[in-house]
Amino acid sequence: MHTKKVHIVSLGCPKNLVDSEVMAGVLAEKGYLLTDRQEEADVLLVNTCAFILPAREEAIAEILRMAAWKQGGCGPCTHLVVTGCLPQRYGKELEEALPEVDLFLGTAAVPHIGRHLDALLSVIGKTRRRSAIGRPTFLMNAGHRRLISTPAGSAYIKIADGCSNRCSYCVIPSIRGKARSRAIDDIVKEAAWLAARGVRELIVTSQDTTAYGLDRREKPTLNRLLRELAAVDGLSWIRLLYTYPARLTEELLRTIADEKKICRYLDIPIQHSDDAILAAMHRRGDGALIRDAIAKAREIIPGVSLRTSLIVGFPGETRRRFENLLSFVREIRFDHLGIFPYSREEGTEAAALPSSISEREKERRRNLVMEEQALISREINSNLIGTRQEVLVEGKGELSGYSHIGRCRRQAPEIDGATHLRGGAPKTGTIIACRIIAADDYDLFAEIL
Questions:
Q1: How does DSSP assign 203-217, residue by residue?
Q2: Do residue 11 and residue 119 come from a single domain?
Q3: Is residue 176 located within the same domain as residue 279?
Q4: What is the DSSP letter of 102?
Q5: Per the confidence metrics, is the pTM higher than 0.70?
Q6: Closest by alpha carbon to 201, among 156, 169, 166, 163?
Q7: What is the signed CA dihedral for 348, 350, 356, 360, rounded to 10 degrees?
Q8: pLDDT tens digits along 114-151
Q9: What is the pLDDT of residues 164-213, one digit of tens each?
Q10: Which residue range forms the structural domain that includes residue 123?
Q11: Are 388 and 179 in contact (CB under 8 A)?
């Protein structure tokens, strides 16, 4: 039995968070003690994202902060370990760039984290390897007992890893490898395990959820997977992230509409609406396809809440093309929207494209879209005042007059705002009935019924 304590910091997307939870589970099974307090930790572990420049900057800043803590001698920390996408992308280059780090591990090391830490801690004062970067082939399964770190009642389930889309701006295929889907039975087994531990909201995720099963010989479908997940006892909500418009079939949309457990919520990352930009991005389909997919979703799933993500400042985005994108946002009226300035990523096809759009102009365009979206979101939220909503309670609130905070079916965690609750003492992790009494640009305010 180890007496060593490990503190894990997880950066980036929900898919990365699942990897962090798997590593925590592996370490717990090996006898390591997990702690939420860095001041108690013997080992600090940072699981990184390297998707775009801001993510890399965040990762480097967190690594340096942890390194300063280790070197400052403020606690028992003796080792700093960096895992995930940053080491997978840059490999041994990081050894020279970040000498403060004791060990770099790629994404394939997730299930072997216990063995790597054992080896690291046993060679104190001796020469040792500082990096282990294998091919990105790891795919978790139900046998990996994660330690869930999300608020009570909610958990992500990763149904696949990697991506085979090859969008021209994206490094994910080179970091995470080709798309690899899990078997339906394995996913359902994990879902049942999560439900038995109090999870009420299951958030289905992968790099491209609608590509699920295309790589497997038996060709399982997302539609069948969702129906089997809806049959799992104990689950109340199933939420779908990363659904690409070109693969939003009528069958899939009808399944979402028919199954009461599946939230009437779709995350559809479209990135742009201009045909020329979409072609340069190597996205499947054009603006007409996107409009058609959204219209079908709204027709088949009445009241569906739509989220998207957009990129501004991509090479070739003229002022006219940007204005068309802004008009598209006004026309479609997404419930939720995230927007990112284009980040030129080495090793991608788009990095070779000529571009004269400054970072200042990219930020200006981003702000214009977000200002427009704020007006749309406030109007949509205001129309919910007086309606009855189910809310998953996530914990104590921090706003005066609102004792608790949670989310309704139309809100995904972290990205869509929250619902502030008053008028009762609900239990964290439960789903309760509320009436919306007020709204702002992104949040809702509710009275518990």
A1: EEE-SSGGGTTTTST
A2: yes
A3: yes
A4: S
A5: yes
A6: 156
A7: -60
A8: 999 998 988 765 557 788 998 999 999 999 989 999 88
A9: 998 999 999 999 999 999 999 999 999 999 999 999 999 999 999 999 99
A10: 5-132
A11: no
